[in-house]
Structure formats: structure tokens, C-alpha cells
UniProtKB/TrEMBL annotation:
The protein's name: Nitroreductase
One cellular component (GO) term of this entry: plasma membrane
A Pfam family the protein falls into: F420H2_quin_red
Alphabetized GO MF terms: coenzyme F420 binding; oxidoreductase activity
Family, as annotated: Belongs to the F420H(2)-dependent quinone reductase family.
Catalytic reaction(s) noted: oxidized coenzyme F420-(gamma-L-Glu)(n) + a quinol + H(+) = reduced coenzyme F420-(gamma-L-Glu)(n) + a quinone
InterPro entries linked to this entry: F420H2_quin_Rdtase, Split_barrel_FMN-bd
Top-level taxon: Bacteria
């Protein structure tokens, strides 16, 4: 049931995001909603979903929390296999490269994540896995 609920919810958010040009996805100056397009690790098909991001300078940070589930989200597993992604923020679409934050980077960035999005702290408490951070960097054409 959880998967089908989130599939429907994501479809609704994608629709609203696209028809409003991303205006529904702002959480403040340093945070918002983006559309992440990955390549499925098994299917090879493009997969697009809305995700909250946290911005620090020119880096976009994604939190692979999956709501505190014991498992990593599919998008995270997909980008581990195919790190070149397409990111849409508002009306702007850009090619980006995803990198999993190193343990040192995560240790440095985690307090910033909790400051800007405290709910992730509750998700971390729900699971025994360390919730990974993903860093998105623009790719020059």
C-alpha cells in the first residue's frame, strides 16, 4: 500500500509542479522542491520524481531518507548506477552529476540539513541505516 500511495502522490505533485512552473515547490531561500530524473538501474527507463532539496552555495543536497525506512529509496539506488541526472528547478532544467557524500562531507553537512529540514532527524531516528546525502553538481555542456 505504501508504494502505491506514494506513486499516486508523486504523480499529483509532478503534475502540479509542471503546470505551475515549480511555484508549488518552494520551502524558503535555501530549500525547495525539484524534479529529479534518473535512469532505472534495472529497466533502463527514465524515472522522474519530486524531491526536496537543500541548497548550500552552488551545491544541491538531497536526503535519501525514504521516510526513515530501513531500505534506501529506489532513486538513490538508480543514481548509484547512473550518476548523470536531469534536474528541474522551477522552469529551469539542467544536466547534473550526483555524488554520494563521503562520511566526512555528511558529518559536515548533516547539521545544516537538520537546521533547514528538522524532520530528517526524526527519519534518522526511525532507522538503523545511516541516511545518505547526495550532492548534485552542474555539468558543463
Amino acid at each position: 500500500m505504501r508504494k502505491s500511495f506514494f506513486s499516486v502522490l508523486n504523480a499529483v505533485i509532478l503534475f502540479l509542479y509542471r503546470i505551475t512552473g515549480g511555484r508549488i515547490g518552494m520551502f524558503g531561500k535555501h530549500s525547495g522542491l525539484l524534479l529529479l530524473t534518473t535512469i532505472g538501474r534495472r529497466s533502463g527507463k527514465k524515472r522522474t520524481l519530486p524531491l526536496r532539496y537543500i541548497r548550500e552555495d552552488q551545491t544541491y543536497i538531497l536526503v535519501a531518507s525514504y521516510g526513515g525506512s530501513p531500505h534506501h529509496p529506489a532513486w538513490y539506488l538508480n543514481l548509484k548506477h547512473h550518476p548523470d541526472v536531469i534536474v528541474t528547478i522551477g522552469a529551469n532544467t539542467q544536466n547534473m552529476r550526483a555524488e554520494i557524500a563521503s562520511p566526512e562531507q555528511r558529518q559536515q553537512l548533516w547539521p545544516l540539513v537538520l537546521e533547514r529540514a528538522p524532520l530528517y532527524g526524526k527519519y534518522q531516528q526511525r532507522t538503523t541505516r545511516e541516511i545518505p546525502l547526495v550532492l548534485l553538481y552542474p555539468v558543463e555542456k
